[in-house]
Amino acid sequence: MQAAGENKKLLNHAEKKKISLYSVGVNFVLSLIKIVGGVVSGSAALTADGVHSLSDLAASLSVYVGIVISNKKSKLFPQGLYKVENLVALVSAFAIFFAGYEIAKDVLFEASKPIKNLPIAVGVIGLTVLITFLYSRWEKRKAEELNSPSLLADAEHIKADFYTALVVLVGVFGQYFGYPIVEKIAVVVVVYFIFHSGFEILKEAIKVLLDASLDHESIEKIREILEREPKVKKVLAVTGRNAGSFKFVQLDLDLDTDSLKEAHELAHDIEDRIKAEMPFVEKVVVHYQ
Length: 289
Prior knowledge:
Layout: H1 2-41, H2 44-70, H3 84-109, H4 118-146, H5 149-176, H6 181-209, H7 216-227, E1 232-243, E2 246-255, H8 260-277, E3 281-288
Parallel strand pairs: 2-3
Antiparallel strand pairs: 1-2
Helix pairs in contact: 1-2, 1-4, 2-3, 2-5, 3-5, 3-6, 4-5, 5-6
């Protein structure tokens, strides 16, 4: 069972690396088409958004590096480097805040410029909206399946790019038809949603880095598993923490046995059962009496 668990971890890690590389490719394509489209159409907002996508590309590269490092083993870090993923998520949150700031600064405080080629600008923005919407939804779903905080942060970062594209689209139409104020109103709404996403990622990353307790649902699921074990007389305590994609659990149990050997075997059985029924549990430490 331990070998099966290790294989699952390796597959999990390989899948996360693959998805993070997809994000690098998506952000490279987005930055390229935005910059080219902005230059050809004469849209300064689209060109600026393309330059901003280069920072998204750097953020995706950092997610990839973080995922690679998080799986490394070291004598200095006997519990693993899983929290590197949460650290990357923390950095991504600040990148999202910066994205919101850049959008607000560019649209609210820069002078508007005329559009030379509306069809090209709209076509490029429409393609950007489609790519970012579909990819961010897919990456978020995969991040939740893999329980990856860094991929979830990256998905939110790309979703912020989706909102940016909508702002640019509204701004292009508003500017083209002589209503630049429309762009400024739209950006205020979008920046709010961007900062909200960044705050949620920041909050979750800090909780894990400060070793906050496991979520209520996980603790209740563990208690439910323990209640099905007839040899467990009383559950004294269930505690734990998150680190990257994984959970570390600690149990204090009153067992119905006087045999040290039987208690030891029962503790192993409980650990195996919890790992089998709950995904992403890395380790279960059982203290018994």
